[in-house]
């Protein structure tokens, strides 16, 4: 089985705001944090927290519920490709492979493929222990 | 101070698990950077029962997963009208592992099994339906393997596949892959050497079409077969062919050596036969170094001063997994000198560093006045 990898680093229509994009690329920023997000109720579209970037120090802070996380910009030793799984219908895949019929393609109706949506050389890391904020 | 709202995607079910992070070695990074949307020749290959590999147009990498203790959020602008791109940033997915790429040898071993029964030998001019017995005792026709079949079934890059077919002397006849029988290959090379001499053609620049015609008329070799063999053992120019003398002399030597797998031949006699087979013009290129990895030398038992004995012992017949390879090598000989064992490892390692790692893992090295000797490691309990 051959799964093609497409390069799609500049095909996104929307861009991230510049003060946030400086932690990654215009399309993707990777945020690293300890632990995992605990979601209550339906996750779709839910608000997670307020992310603030100080203009001068460029330090990011993230307020999630009662937790205040302080973070920083970390340069990556090796660049990371961010890949997004796409499924194309078998007719598109057949056309690319120059097949007359789709017999040699996987029997599932959608052949898997992956798009490289960004290559990031930095990430935003929240490594310090969160400080509980009570009241505001 | 700038503030953003960090939100989860509106489509968690679809996006969860749909992202991966891949660490890029410098050459792949450069490849991606120079491709603006579209095809960089990258693909992932493998069947469900194999470990996946990533292939560029000319290299193969094994994929290795590294689990992270932290979580990594993939954050993008909001999709469509689901949020305000100036203030909302959206978590598409949470990732807990990073994929690493490790350069690896192309995996072509399956070719041998896939092509069993499809050899091309002298006199196979018509397309026969080769009939084989399968495991149920029924006879059936062996199905043909095309180049496209090999490309989709083997974990190798385009270039490595082409080179692999070349190295294994696999012909493409009428769209089908056919390994050329070794004995016939040696015969064709000897026809080529004879033709160059008989018709006074220079091996630096022989007229291609004339050579093809000579072999067809004098020796009944199919023209498409001659052309492919010439391509393996030389370079084509404008209707001219420049023979790769070392490769051709080597293959002729191998052809003679193959007869001595079970019974050894005295080195001097072998060299004499070899020189005679290639003729005066190419005699000076005859050298045992060309055959490294295909023979063993042993001192003659009662006479230390007599020339050594050679036996045919090809690395390609040994197991390709490291444990199996070393087991066979130490069964054949209890101890090996470093220079003697290296040629029998070069086909299963990417570089010398990997070879040294394998020697460290599977052998015990002892240094004495004569150099480094390797013996088998005692089995760990």
From TrEMBL, chain A:
Residues 93-103 have a biased composition (Acidic residues). Belongs to the CTF8 family. PANTHER family: CHROMOSOME TRANSMISSION FIDELITY FACTOR 8, CTF8, CHROMOSOME TRANSMISSION FIDELITY FACTOR 8 HOMOLOG (S. CEREVISIAE). It holds the Pfam family Ctf8. This is Chromosome transmission fidelity protein 8. InterPro entries: Ctf8. One of its GO terms (cellular component) is Ctf18 RFC-like complex. GO terms for biological process: DNA replication; mitotic sister chromatid cohesion. It comes from Phlebiopsis gigantea (strain 11061_1 CR5-6) (White-rot fungus). GO terms for molecular function: DNA binding. Keywords: Cell cycle, DNA replication, DNA-binding, Nucleus. Residues 91-110 are annotated as: Disordered.
Automatic annotation (TrEMBL), chain B:
Keywords: DNA replication. InterPro entries: Dcc1. One of its GO terms (biological process) is maintenance of mitotic sister chromatid cohesion. One of its GO terms (cellular component) is chromosome, centromeric region. Belongs to the DCC1 family. This is Sister chromatid cohesion protein DCC1.
């Amino acid at each position: 089985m051959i799964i093609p990898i497409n390069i799609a680093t500049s095909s996104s229509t929307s861009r991230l705001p510049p003060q946030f994009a400086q932690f990654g690329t215009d399309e993707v920023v990777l945020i690293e944090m300890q632990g995992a997000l605990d979601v209550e109720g339906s996750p779709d579209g839910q608000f997670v927290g307020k992310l603030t970037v100080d203009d001068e120090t460029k330090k990011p802070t993230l307020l999630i519920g009662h937790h205040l996380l302080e973070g920083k910009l970390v340069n990556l030793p090796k660049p990371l490709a961010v890949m997004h799984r796409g499924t194309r219908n078998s007719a598109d895949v057949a056309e690319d492979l120059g097949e007359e019929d789709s017999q040699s393609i996987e029997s599932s109706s959608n052949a898997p493929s992956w798009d490289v949506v960004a290559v990031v050389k930095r990430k935003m890391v929240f490594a310090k222990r969160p400080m509980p904020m009570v009241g505001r | 101070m700038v503030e953003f709202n960090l939100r989860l995607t509106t489509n968690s079910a679809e996006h969860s698990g749909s992202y991966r992070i891949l660490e890029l070695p410098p050459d792949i990074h450069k490849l991606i950077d120079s491709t603006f949307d579209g095809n960089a020749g990258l693909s992932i290959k493998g069947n469900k029962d194999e470990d996946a590999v990533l292939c560029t147009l000319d290299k193969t990498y094994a994929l290795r997963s590294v689990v992270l203790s932290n979580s990594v959020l993939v954050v993008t602008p909001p999709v469509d009208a689901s949020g305000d791109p100036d203030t909302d940033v959206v978590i598409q997915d949470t990732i807990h592992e990073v994929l690493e790429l490790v350069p690896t040898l192309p995996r072509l071993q399956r070719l041998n099994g896939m092509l069993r029964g499809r050899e091309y030998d002298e006199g196979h001019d018509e397309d026969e339906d080769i009939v084989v017995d399968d495991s149920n005792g029924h006879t059936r026709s062996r199905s043909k393997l095309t180049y496209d079949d090999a490309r989709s079934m083997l974990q190798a890059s385009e270039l490595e596949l082409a080179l692999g077919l070349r190295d294994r002397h696999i012909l493409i006849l009428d769209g089908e892959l056919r390994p050329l029988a070794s004995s016939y290959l040696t015969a064709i090379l000897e026809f080529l050497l004879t033709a160059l001499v008989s018709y006074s053609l220079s091996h630096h620049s022989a007229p291609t079409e004339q050579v093809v015609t000579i072999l067809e008329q004098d020796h009944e070799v199919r023209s498409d077969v001659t052309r492919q063999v010439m391509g393996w053992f030389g370079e084509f120019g404008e209707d001219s062919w420049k023979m790769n003398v070392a490769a051709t002399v080597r293959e002729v030597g191998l052809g003679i050596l193959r007869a001595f797998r079970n019974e050894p031949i005295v080195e001097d006699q072998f060299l004499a036969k070899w020189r005679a087979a290639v003729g005066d013009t190419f005699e000076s290129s005859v050298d045992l170094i060309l055959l490294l990895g295909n023979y063993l030398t042993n001192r003659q038992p009662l006479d230390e001063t007599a020339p050594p004995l050679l036996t045919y012992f090809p690395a390609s017949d040994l197991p390709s997994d490291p444990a199996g390879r070393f087991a066979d090598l130490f069964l054949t000989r209890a101890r090996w000198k470093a220079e003697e064992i290296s040629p029998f490892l070069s086909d299963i390692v990417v570089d010398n560093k990997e070879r040294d790692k394998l020697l460290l893992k599977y052998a015990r090295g002892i240094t004495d006045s004569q150099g480094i000797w390797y013996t088998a490691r005692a089995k760990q309990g």
